[in-house]
Amino acid sequence: DSGVTQTPKHLITATGQRVTLRCSPRSGDLSVYWYQQSLDQGLQFLIQYYNGEERAKGNILERFSAQQFPDLHSELNLSSLELGDSALYFCASSPEIGLAGTNEQFFGPGTRLTVL
Amino acid sequence: AQKITQTQPGMFVQEKEAVTLDCTYDTSDQSYGLFWYKQPSSGEMIFLIYQGSYDEQNATEGRYSLNFQKARKSANLVISASQLGDSAMYFCAMRELIGNTDKLIFGTGTRLQVFP
Predict the structure, then answer these.
(1) Does A52 touch chain B (CB under 8 A)?
(2) Is the pLDDT of residue B97 over 90?
């Protein structure tokens, strides 16, 4: 158990809908990352937050948005869903950014999104 | 831009044998970190081992070791004494650290199957 929690574990919805994925980082971790794992794109970085502020954006669609709340949990909002958004969405957390050393990212169990 | 290449889509190994999973990387940075993660069929991402670019010795963690050849830009994972439970996808990743951005770039993965 990495200490990172994600809910829900599975989500099935229809095209055009909007969903919210939730992540709670490990206790004390300030940095949260979202990744998308799909069959055709592999594992891709979406967005990073640090202590409530957005730090970096990757290949995140405009239909997707995220935020990190004062209690450090994060939510990833996906709207106008398309079939191609079906994927496993991971949240990861790490203590700080920019430090030398491992700075391992601890991954949550993922949310499997199926868009029908 | 940084890039990770895993050229082995699938590998087979007999139980108790050793296996090497290949990973090459491309970066112009002098300081970088390389990671290996395991993803079993249940989907979670499990951190295995880390190698820093300035580490003089190859990293080891139990049955996992990293064969780091800096000049060749390779960071192969060696699993000794394979077990049936090692059957999973294995991802090589590089840490990209630019300013306050700290994210992982993943390879496409290698599916390892261990047979009795």
Answers:
(1) no
(2) no
